[in-house]
Amino acid sequence: MNSVSVFRFSQLSFGVARTSIRHGHTRSRRRAPQPELTNFEPGHGEQIWVYSHLTSNQVIYSHTKQLDSNRALRQLPFNGKKTKPAKLRRDYWEPMALIQLPSGAGVAGQSVFQKLREFRRLHELCWDESLRFTKNTDTFTGVTKTRVRNRLERGVALNDQRANSIADMAAVLAGVGRGSRLLVSPQEKKAVLEEGKTLVGRKWSQKPPPPTATVVAKEGEGEDVSKAVEGEDASNVIKAEDASKVVEGPEELLPATIYWANEADRNFAERWSDNVTHDVFDNVKAVLAENQFTEAIEEGSEALEAETKPLEAETKAEKALDKSLV
Fold first, then answer.
1. Per-residue pLDDT reduced to its tens digit, 51-60
2. Verdict on whether the full-model pTM lies above 0.70
3. Domain ranges, residue 121
4. Secondary structure (3-state) at 94
5. Which of 155, 187, 196, 317 is most deeply buried (CB count within 10 A of its CB)?
6. How crowded is the C-beta side of 172, counted as CA atoms within 13 Å?
């Protein structure tokens, strides 16, 4: 049987007990950074390994020498069917380069790592018409025709990020990109390189490092720091009491070393900044040294053969003379 609906006055909200109260929060809306909870190993960020695919020229960045399959696959975009591998094969991926930063500059390495991934994502999403069209030249007539790439060809072209990644490395190590921690004040550079201190990042530190004169001028806090130091009070100039918080001198770039598996890859970049030095991997050095050693042995053997040939000719002539006398 259906029960008769009875209106009950108890369902009405009368009084203070039923009044909605908004509870106050004592915690801040923004959580304070706690870098100690990340459990990073000592020296995290000082090395950036750049891996390249042997056939598709896809690029993966890593802070460790051993690739993590799950994290590495997240860096690879889906550019079409059969363009993203289901798993990583170690025989297809090899180190293309290693970016080495000074000891204690792990924060700068993390900033470089972030910029490299952001620039690569821009290459994958904001591509121009050169990836949409392709040119074919007839071998017999020499006529060049332009046609539109199909989906598979366009996906293969988007996967080829080897040259773009090398150009991005040159740009990021030159300080390109907003908020790059590779740009430091002279005091910070001296503390990292000479005193062996650890560089503090603006994002993770409770008390960020003092801004340099160029940063202060860019933010509009003052037009001329020298006037502020002299004590001139103006609305658009830093006051003398705040001048002690400003680090004098322009920003400088931290040095970086790139170890290449193939030293010719550095030519993909138009130019490199002065703070970057180039070298090759140790195993490549061993192979080159072995090749030079074999070349030296071959040259020595050729010289030895050239010296022994006249002696052999003389001995043959003497034997022929003895036979004729007999």
1. 999 999 999 9
2. no
3. 41-206+249-289
4. strand
5. 155
6. 25
